[in-house]
Design goal:
The chain is an alpha+beta fold. It folds into 4 domains: 15-148, GAF domain (Beta-Lactamase, 2-Layer Sandwich), CATH 3.30.450; 157-268, PAS domain (Beta-Lactamase, 2-Layer Sandwich); 271-341; 344-492, Heat Shock Protein 90 (2-Layer Sandwich), CATH 3.30.565. 39% of the residues lie in helices and 23% in strands. The protein contains 14 helices and 16 strands. The chain starts with 14 loop residues before the first helix and ends with a strand. Keywords: ATP-binding, Kinase, Nucleotide-binding, Phosphoprotein, Transferase. Residues 288-353 form the Signal transduction histidine kinase subgroup 2 dimerisation and phosphoacceptor domain. It holds the Pfam family HisKA_2. InterPro entries: H_kinase_PdtaS_GAF_sf (IPR038424), HATPase_C_sf (IPR036890), PAS-like_dom_sf (IPR035965), PdtaS_GAF (IPR022066), Sig_transdc_His_kin_sub2_dim/P (IPR011495).
């Protein structure tokens, strides 16, 4: 055998179907107590694209087969199944092939796309029981549906990837075409008892059993009947006052596409639901805290504004206005964080507003215009406050030192850059003004003000980045001046 990179050679017409198979086939692996390998034709042979191991039994293939070619004994079996479109099982007349291995064609769009091999562990044979018989029969039904292109259903991935999705080991119920229970696993029986169902369930209608336990005053999910009758590949939550069960149905179809039975997986998600509610409550509390902090900071900003109007000294008034601008910057961050529950924040609206507001406050009555180019994009929430303060201070400094009585233009340029040899990108933030810095002494004097000290501290400590100031040659707008450049690593 040799290894190869799986997936890079797959026909894009086949990719969605194969991804759906690998998203769902853990159910079949658990029901069959077998390992499963997906083989795709490539360069005259086959490549293992994915492998699934059963949770219900010991693995047969301890070494991952993904990316390898098949052993010599398996090659003819794969070719036979792929070309004929017919399964190969150990009950076939001309068995051959590796012992304990069956193979099934993966069909979609009326063509065979790949082959799935099922590897049974012959060393640790399981004691035959009713559970094992039903599980293996159900697995075989799913393999037949794979060969007919009817399982997994196109709408099954949404229910299989959702939070708290039921698994085979959580509880399995098999029902016939009329919704009558033909088998319930021990864990499924335990789930029924939690619902309040104490009697034997074999031969009874699953839908009626469950709905009899529901509170009549609570609304019933319209999907519930189709799930409990096994008519649709879907998932529904069954809620009572004391317990929440997640139920997922898998319709079983014959070779004519007719519904003859269904599997219903059950899982007690009461604790998961309780934790979700706690998280939602905590998120709501955090958002409320951000909202209240924003209100308090806006009050502080208003007080500073009122105090500045009483100042007779221009320097004192300007100092209060700068303090007010910093408070408003933090308040704007908390306002943004109060409106989202995500860990990342869309910084464009927040920082563009902050930049414009800082320029307007610092400019006063002077005619200073702004120009904004580029995008900050989505950034982690913990970067919002220091980044907003940095933009605020850079804008304020640019107005103070880069404009005169006749006003001018302040520009904010943003982009993400990739440095050769660095594993992560950088966020590059530039603020340009039209003031000219003459000589090295003047350049060194840039770092002597309080605003610049605040910028350096925030950039180097909170953002783990760097800042520099450069002479700006005339750009496409004909403006020359000073350019402040901030580089922030985006690896955190």
């Amino acid at each position: 055998m040799h290894t190869s990179t799986p997936g890079s050679f797959v026909d894009q017409r086949h990719a969605p179907r194969l991804e759906l198979i690998t998203a769902e086939w853990q159910i079949a692996a658990d029901l069959s107590f077998c390992d499963m390998v997906l083989w795709y034709p490539h360069d005259g042979s086959y490549i293992a694209m994915a492998q699934a191991r059963p949770v219900t039994a010991q693995t047969t293939l301890p070494q991952d087969m993904t990316g390898t070619t098949p052993p010599a004994s398996m090659g003819p079996v794969l070719e036979r199944v792929f070309t004929s479109g017919q399964p190969f099982t150990q009950t076939s007349d001309d068995v051959g092939g590796p012992p304990g291995v069956s193979a099934w064609p993966v069909v979609g769009q009326d063509e065979t796309m790949a082959v799935v091999t099922v590897h049974q562990n012959l060393v640790s044979q399981r004691h035959t029981s009713r559970l094992e018989e039903v599980y293996r029969q159900s697995a075989n039904d799913l393999f037949v549906m794979i060969a007919h292109g009817t399982w997994p259903a196109q709408d099954s991935k949404a229910s299989s990837t959702s939070h708290g999705n039921p698994r085979v080991g959580d509880g399995l119920v098999r029902i016939d075409a009329h919704g009558l229970i033909t088998y319930a696993s021990p864990n499924a029986t335990s789930a029924f008892r939690k619902l309040g169902i104490r009697d034997a369930v074999d031969g009874r209608q699953l839908s009626r059993l469950v709905t009899n336990q529901l509170d009549l005053n609570l609304p019933i999910d319209e999907v519930m009947p189709t799930v409990l009758f096994g008519r649709q590949s879907a998932r529904v939550d069954i809620e009572t006052r004391n317990i929440v069960l997640s139920a997922r149905s898998i319709p079983l179809l014959d070779d004519q596409g007719q519904h003859f039975a269904a599997l219903v997986l059950l899982r007690d998600i009461t604790e998961i639901r309780r934790r979700d509610e706690q998280l939602i409550s905590k998120d709501a509390t955090i958002r409320e805290i951000h909202h209240r902090v924003k209100n308090n900071l806006q009050t502080v900003g208003s007080l500073l504004r009122m105090q500045s109007r009483r100042m007779k000294s221009d320097d004192a008034r300007q100092a209060l206005l700068q303090a007010m601008s910093r408070v408003d910057a933090i308040a704007l961050v908390h306002e943004t964080l109060s409106q989202t529950m995500e860990t990342t924040v869309d910084m464009d609206d927040l920082l563009n507003r902050q930049f414009t507001m800082a320029v307007e406050i610092a400019a006063g009555s002077h005619p200073v215009s702004t120009r904004i180019e580029g995008s900050f994009g989505q950034l982690p929430g913990h970067l919002a406050t220091p980044l907003a303060l940095v933009v605020n201070e850079l804008a304020t400094n640019a107005v103070e030192h880069g404009t005169g009585p006749d006003g001018g233009m302040i520009s904010l340029l943003t982009k993400r850059v990739h440095t050769p040899g660095q594993p992560h990108p950088y966020l590059k933030v530039e603020v340009l003004d039209e003031g000219v810095v003459d000589g090295p002494e003047a350049t060194a004097a840039i770092g002597s003000g309080l605003g610049t000290q605040i910028i350096r501290t925030l950039v180097e400590s909170d953002l783990r980045g760097s800042i520099s100031w450069e002479r700006q040659l005339p750009d496409k707008f004909g403006a020359a001046g000073t350019r402040a450049v901030v580089l922030i690593p985006l690896d955190h």
